[in-house]
Write a sequence for this structure.
């Protein structure tokens, strides 16, 4: 393995070794301190589906989770076959000008460092934390990926974005991502990484450099798709089932989904192995979101349950305050946040490719929508 990427950082680096000697699965996720309560729900779903006959080596990639929250997470594990560790990968990214916007943060890029940090392992299941396991992670970990660098699920919802005539995602897929097949786009919320293959080809560095050089809409997910195209192992899509959040329903998004995708989506819904609240519509912000009741079943078992409730109460209180102030339109926009973000990008592109009065009009619309989105993010924090 070429360790120059690691040596170039200003910090000594000690790669973790397997905690268990045999029959183990390696699982990882990124989290900030703010997301620690939701990380605990992710962890609880693993605990509830873990087999007593398997050892689970779990890593949390973070840079600022408090000692108190780490202890809470550690104490929530009361079985000897599950081990939880925290690693800070920020030194591997410090020399890059990585871009993120809106709801995204630097933690999104941590998964790109995982093959370097976990080079003593063969594979790792790396996921987002806005999801719950509905099956044993060992089943996913044992999936043979052959010589492919990673395994991931086809993004069925992306297929609807690409075919939505009101959006510009097809143009973005063609001109920015340069995808040979825009319908082969995969979601990186659940990935099985082939660590030796990644490190042998220096993929981490190459993709991080691409992220630093390009302004991607969906950050490292777009970069991974643009880099690998379809050179991956496609998992059963039940391993990354995206919920139909309220924004999708309001825009009738799924009517644009290719028929073969829609049939697969309906089949997966009957028995999803992982349920993913991708994009907007988080269950901790709105318990009436699609399948949110399943997320709350795990939340009630965590040591963060009261804090999660307190945050929800504060959020609902801010909604009520806004409504009492007469700004009903702002409340409506909170519910359609994702749709308005897409509209913002459309205005931004049109303000650059049009001329005269049309260009001036789109610039004004872009500025107005940018301010509205900023207000909404303040409410949703």
């Amino acid at each position: 393995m070429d360790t120059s990427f690691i040596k170039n950082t200003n910090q000594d680096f000690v790669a973790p070794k397997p905690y268990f000697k045999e029959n183990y699965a390696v699982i990882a996720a990124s989290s900030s301190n703010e997301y620690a309560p939701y990380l605990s729900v992710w962890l609880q779903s693993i605990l509830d589906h873990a087999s007593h006959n398997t050892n689970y080596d779990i890593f949390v990639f973070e840079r600022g989770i408090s000692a108190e929250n780490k202890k809470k997470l550690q104490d929530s594990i009361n079985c000897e076959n599950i081990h939880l560790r925290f690693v800070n990968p920020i030194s591997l990214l410090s020399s890059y000008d990585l871009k993120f916007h809106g709801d995204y943060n630097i933690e999104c890029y941590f998964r790109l460092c995982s093959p370097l940090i976990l080079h003593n392992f063969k594979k790792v299941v790396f996921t987002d934390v806005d999801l719950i396991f509905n099956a044993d992670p060992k089943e996913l970990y044992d999936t043979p990926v052959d010589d492919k660098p990673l395994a991931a699920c086809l993004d069925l919802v992306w297929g609807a974005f690409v075919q939505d005539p009101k959006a510009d995602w097809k143009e973005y897929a063609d001109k920015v991502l340069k995808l040979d097949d825009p319908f082969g786009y995969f979601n990186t919320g659940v990935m099985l990484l082939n660590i030796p293959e990644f490190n042998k080809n220096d993929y981490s560095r190459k993709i991080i450099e691409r992220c630093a050089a390009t302004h991607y809409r969906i950050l490292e997910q777009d970069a991974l798709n643009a880099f690998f195209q379809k050179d991956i192992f496609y998992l059963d899509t039940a391993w990354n089932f995206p919920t139909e959040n309220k924004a999708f329903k309001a825009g009738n998004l799924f009517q644009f989904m290719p028929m073969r995708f829609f049939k697969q989506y309906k089949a997966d819904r009957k028995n999803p192995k992982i349920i993913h609240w991708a994009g907007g519509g988080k269950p901790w912000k709105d318990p009436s979101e699609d399948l949110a009741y399943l997320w709350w079943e795990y939340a009630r078992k965590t040591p963060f349950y009261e804090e999660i409730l307190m945050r929800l109460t504060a959020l609902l209180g801010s909604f009520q305050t806004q409504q009492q102030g007469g700004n009903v339109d702002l409340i409506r926009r909170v519910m359609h946040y994702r749709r308005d973000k897409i509209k913002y990008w459309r205005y931004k592109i049109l303000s650059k490719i049009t001329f005269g009065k049309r260009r001036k009009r789109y610039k004004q619309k872009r500025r107005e929508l940018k301010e509205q989105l900023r207000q909404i993010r303040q409410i949703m924090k």
Observations:
- The two ends are 41 Å apart (CA to CA).
- Residues 1-12, 323-328 have pLDDT under 50 and may be disordered.
- The domain at 4-299 is CATH 3.90.550.10 (Spore Coat Polysaccharide Biosynthesis Protein SpsA; Chain A).
- The chain has 17 helices and ten strands.
